[in-house]
């Protein structure tokens, strides 16, 4: 019996609210709609299920990977033999405590922005343009329009598979440009507190509409796409370097560099990831050859390299 099937049997001893799935296709779970399969897909709905999952998983020495809404996954064309974990249920809750929002890590970023507006709290308007879930946004210190998560993160709760539940301060997360300690420690963010400021909902809505208009004018919409594929190097923008190298619109297989924004990638195919990694490596190689700058991925390679 495969390790994933053995784990599934163990999980059936405590039925999950959302049943685990063997051989889960990756394409429906990513914004690029591409990828192979994961051995087992598990969606814990509460802290009890999450703790039970890892108590059963760790002794089997199975690899695992946390996925949010898949908006920053760069999927290879190969299967993942381990467990894909996605938070759902209680991890999508939202609440207000005076000038702070408490948001579950599984909450969609745009939903966080809308809830903040309903509460008359400003500072999260930019999240309306960010694809993905709050957990991913915190882990990578997402940002847009001169703002980022680090500027409003007031604390959070996480799960360390080896140690249990932990509380996190802003200092604990050691935020950097598109980075935090969560990218290195294996901790799973469960919820975050966001410190915001009172603002009229009508004013907030106007800002949201302004940001959304800018997004429609400068980024591809209505197509299977990945947000910023590369991090901006110090002192410049990745899209400028890609343009300088003459790569806007370059296509390999079903994937191309967006004609609308050179730091976005589009999938013109039907689910296969063939050509994706080759296109990324081509851009990195040609940009470095022509400009001397090495572009680093902003997203996560999946399955991760050994």
TrEMBL record:
Keyword entries, A-Z: Cell cycle, Cell division, Cell shape, Cell wall biogenesis/degradation, Cytoplasm, FAD, Flavoprotein, NADP, Oxidoreductase, Peptidoglycan synthesis
Known cofactor(s): FAD
Family membership: Belongs to the MurB family.
Organism: Candidatus Lambdaproteobacteria bacterium RIFOXYD2_FULL_56_26
Role summary: Cell wall formation.
Biological process annotations from GO: cell division; cell wall organization; peptidoglycan biosynthetic process; regulation of cell shape
Its EC number(s): 1.3.1.98
Cellular component aspect of the GO annotation: cytosol
Protein's name in the database: UDP-N-acetylenolpyruvoylglucosamine reductase
């Amino acid at each position: 019996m495969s390790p994933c099937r053995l784990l599934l049997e163990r999980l059936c001893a405590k039925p999950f609210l959302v049943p685990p799935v063997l051989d889960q296709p990756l394409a429906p779970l990513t914004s690029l709609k591409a990828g192979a399969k994961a051995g087992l897909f598990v969606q814990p709905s509460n802290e009890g299920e999450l703790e039970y999952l890892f108590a059963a998983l760790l002794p089997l020495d199975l690899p695992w990977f946390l996925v949010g809404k898949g908006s920053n996954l760069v999927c290879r064309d190969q299967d993942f033999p381990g467990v894909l974990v996605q938070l759902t249920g209680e991890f999508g809750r939202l609440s207000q405590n005076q000038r702070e929002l408490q948001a579950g890590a599984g909450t969609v970023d745009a939903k966080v922005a809308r809830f903040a507006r309903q509460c008359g709290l400003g500072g999260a308007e930019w999240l309306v343009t960010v694809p993905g879930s709050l957990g991913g946004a915190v882990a990578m210190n997402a940002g847009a329009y001169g703002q980022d998560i680090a500027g409003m993160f007031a604390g959070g709760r996480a799960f360390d598979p080896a140690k249990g539940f932990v509380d996190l301060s802003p200092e604990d997360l050691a935020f950097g440009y598109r980075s935090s300690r969560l990218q290195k420690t294996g901790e799973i963010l469960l919820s975050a507190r966001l410190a915001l400021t009172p603002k009229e909902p009508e004013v907030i809505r106007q800002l949201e509409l302004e940001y959304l208009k800018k997004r429609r004018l400068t980024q591809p919409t209505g197509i299977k796409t990945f947000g910023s594929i590369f991090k901006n190097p110090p002192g410049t923008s990745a899209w400028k370097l890609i343009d300088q190298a003459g790569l806007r619109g370059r296509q390999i297989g079903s994937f191309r560099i967006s004609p609308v924004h050179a730091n976005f990638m589009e999938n013109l195919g039907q689910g296969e990831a063939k050509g994706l990694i080759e296109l990324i490596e081509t851009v990195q190689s040609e940009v470095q050859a022509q400009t001397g700058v090495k572009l680093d991925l902003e997203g996560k390679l999946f399955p991760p390299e050994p």
